[in-house]
Design a protein that fits this description.
mainly alpha, about 75% helix
């Protein structure tokens, strides 16, 4: 090919109009698939936004300060969810306190210490299997193991231990994927400088994958807040206010989703929509807070 022919190539493509990667004209099928993808994404966003707006419109008018700060009473025929809010907070904190260190530790072992073999494949297969088990099965297991065998009965501790098993696959897999995104050169450079394995993990790997860990925590909180079937068998349906900080862990306590289920069974739709709106606001607040913290840490880094 001569110099004149080479120089003429860009001018030929310009005359032919927009070109695809292969050098030919953009096909109609590509435009159709691009439009279909845009429509699918827009439909998903619109459906989610419509669902959230509908719940908030139906629930917020019935949400009052008295509803948020009182205890339900059958004699006075009042509906308060203060105990359920506190039980939900207890459940989130206790579950994360148990599941997060275990999940991060398991991910570090699988990605940094364990040799690829049957044991690792078995652990990964077990993790995937745990993530696919229905929540009602977890509830029956928690009832038999933590409630009966260990003697915790219907308590927040039994519910938190059960939920810890449920969210553990999410924490492990998300943290493991985050660790795999750290360049191998970081590990080799640390080893060349004489850093120990734990020093490498503590000062390099974990700070680099903290966004993945935060993501796993967010997903876990969403699973905890939205769970009801497993908690009915383990945490119970009591709506008593905690008498002290730690003693309440061993007592029965219904979370917001469990209380919503009970009100829905009694046909109290207005109360159900109020609880649903509160759950939506809690999840949105948690997601926004964690994103702000993550972005601030990214800027500082």
């Amino acid at each position: 090919m001569t110099i004149n022919q080479t120089a003429a190539l860009p001018r030929v493509q310009t005359e032919r109009g927009p070109a695809a990667i292969t050098g030919s004209r953009i096909r109609v099928f590509d435009l159709v698939m691009k439009g279909a993808s845009i429509l699918a994404g827009a439909f998903t966003v619109a459906l989610t936004a419509g669902l959230l707006v509908y719940i908030l419109i139906k629930g917020l008018p019935s949400t009052t300060v008295e509803f948020l700060t009182t205890v339900p009473s059958a004699l006075k025929k009042t509906y308060g969810i203060l105990p359920n809010i506190l039980n939900t907070v207890y459940m989130i904190l206790l579950t994360l306190l148990i599941a997060t260190p275990l999940g991060i530790g398991a991910a570090i072992y699988l990605n940094e210490y364990a040799k690829k073999g049957r044991l690792v494949r078995l652990i990964e297969f077990t993790t995937e299997a745990l993530s696919g088990i229905p929540s009602i099965i977890y509830g029956l297991f928690g009832y038999m193991c933590f409630g009966n065998f260990l003697g915790f009965g219907y308590s927040i501790l039994s519910g938190a231990l059960t939920l810890s098993i449920m969210v553990l696959p999410t924490v492990i897999r998300t943290t493991e994927e985050a660790l795999r995104t750290v360049p191998q050169g970081y590990r080799e450079g640390a080893a060349g400088l004489g850093a120990s394995k734990w020093h490498l993990i503590r000062t390099i790997l974990l700070p680099c994958c903290k966004n993945g860990i935060i993501t796993s925590v967010i997903l876990s909180i969403g699973r905890i807040v939205g769970e009801s079937a497993a908690l009915i068998f383990t945490a119970g349906i009591a709506t008593n206010l905690p008498k002290n900080l730690f003693g309440h862990i061993l007592s029965s306590g219904a979370t917001l989703t469990v209380q919503l289920y009970q009100y829905a069974d009694r046909g109290l739709n207005d109360v159900c929509f109020s609880i649903a709106a509160i759950l939506v606001l809690i999840v949105l607040a948690i997601n926004l807070t964690t994103r702000l913290i993550s972005s601030r840490q990214r800027k500082q880094g």
